[in-house]
Q: What sequence folds into this?
């Protein structure tokens, strides 16, 4: 294993730990509320507040996007991103191998 | 575990959860309809010059060398991935990262504004996350202000000859945090508190965002370093084409 590989693995483990530890440590917490609390805060400062515009999607659906479908769309977003990165990364990795092989062959031809 | 006990345990957890007032934080984006119309327009207008500069800068990069498209696509994809991951944080709520650091480091802040707005539109339209009326404000915080700070810190770190990877880590971390600071200030400007005005209100919003975001910013820094290591190993020709290595000896 090269030094870089080790660094990458170590870094990824740290990143995963930072994400996982709160879940294990705070068993009672909801881990929800990413969208609501900001509005709660607005209401606390401002008093009652009625959003003056509802998301286009909610208008079209006549309600909130169901949770499962929301996670689907988030997955699509992740998928698009991972797909693009993985595709190019794969090409780069193979290209490097190929270039190194070519280099060796060139050297032995001489 | 016997069924009954299991049920009791579950009931207890549900009961307990009701009493937990988690200082849940809003994810980075300001919700649809939560900014007065005047602010929506104002932030949009502020964003325009940056977006135009971004378009021009991207066009030039592609004209210079078509292969730059690959790295541009990868930076955009990185934002897609990173900003779709909702990650639990120490404050007991979830939030997600920005992922704009990579693009800012590779292509400069203006180019990222375009990549960022694509993601924001995607989330606003399909996910009702953020919103079209608040698009201007969200673009400013996530796709302009954050990347600007990332870019500045990265440049500063290369100037001071600091460890290159530490510089990237700091740049991504600072960009992520600053995005949330700007969001807080934007909300505070629109909702100054009665006692203390904008400043007091900003502190309040920051208090909601900061504890959640700090660990996530660290993760974002780490992930950005990881992808840069990957690119440095396998995509040297592309990085050289955009002048990433500069005078630095190639790693």
A:
């Amino acid at each position: 294993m090269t030094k870089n590989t080790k660094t990458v693995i170590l870094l990824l483990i740290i990143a995963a730990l930072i994400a996982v530890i709160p879940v294990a440590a705070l068993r009672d917490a909801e881990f929800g509320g990413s969208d609501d609390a900001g509005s709660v805060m607005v209401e606390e400062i401002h008093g009652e507040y009625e959003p003056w515009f509802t998301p286009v999607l909610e208008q079209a659906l006549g309600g909130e996007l169901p949770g499962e479908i929301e996670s689907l769309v988030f997955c699509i977003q992740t998928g698009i991103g991972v797909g693009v990165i993985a595709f190019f990364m794969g090409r780069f990795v193979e290209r490097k191998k190929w270039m190194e092989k070519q280099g060796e062959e060139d050297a032995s031809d001489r | 575990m016997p069924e009954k006990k299991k049920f009791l345990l579950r009931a207890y957890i549900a009961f307990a959860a009701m009493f937990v007032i988690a200082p849940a934080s809003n994810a980075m984006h300001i919700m649809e309809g939560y900014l007065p119309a005047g602010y929506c327009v104002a932030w949009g207008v502020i964003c325009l010059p940056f977006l135009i500069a971004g378009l021009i800068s991207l066009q030039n990069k592609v004209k210079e060398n078509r292969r730059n498209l690959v790295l541009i696509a990868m930076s955009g994809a990185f934002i897609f991935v990173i900003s779709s991951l909702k990650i639990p944080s120490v404050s007991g709520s979830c939030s997600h990262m920005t992922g704009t650091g990579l693009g800012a480091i590779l292509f400069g802040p203006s180019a990222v504004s375009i990549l960022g707005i694509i993601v924001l539109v995607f989330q606003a339209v399909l996910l009702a996350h953020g919103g079209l009326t608040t698009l201007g404000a969200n673009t400013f915080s996530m796709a302009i202000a954050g990347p600007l700070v990332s870019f500045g810190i990265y440049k500063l770190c290369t100037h001071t000859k600091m460890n290159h990877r530490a510089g990237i880590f700091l740049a991504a971390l600072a960009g992520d945090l600053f995005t949330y600071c700007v969001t807080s200030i934007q909300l505070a400007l629109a909702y100054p508190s009665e006692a203390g005005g904008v400043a007091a209100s900003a502190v309040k919003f920051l208090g909601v965002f900061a504890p959640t975001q700090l660990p996530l910013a660290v993760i974002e820094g780490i992930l950005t370093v990881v992808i840069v290591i990957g690119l440095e190993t396998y995509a040297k020709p592309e990085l050289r084409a955009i002048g990433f290595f500069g005078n630095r000896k190639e790693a």
In short: Residues 15-26 of chain B have pLDDT under 50 and may be disordered. Chain B touches chain A through 76 residues (CB under 8 Å). The first strand of chain B starts at residue 86 and ends at 88. Residues 102 and 113 of chain B are 12 Å apart (CA to CA).
